[in-house]
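Example 3.2
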Amino acid sequence: MMLDSIDGSNDTLTIISTVQWKATISPAVDWLQLDKTSGTPGNTVMKITLSPANQPINQRTITITFSAIDNSSVQPVNLTI
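Structure, written as tokens:
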């Protein structure tokens, strides 16, 4: 996934899951905001927004990891932005 390089730009991501899930950002940063960090089975639309930061735009990389809650048989999924 790629977001526009303009601070304040945003995009949406539809998460389709059969289990409860949580999303974590690594490394923790203040320039990326998620409007949802967990969800239930079904379809969930997550809004991802870039916030102003004191870092050159071309150096911004982040991984969002989606993990099942209370279900260790489901492998985590990583999304790099």
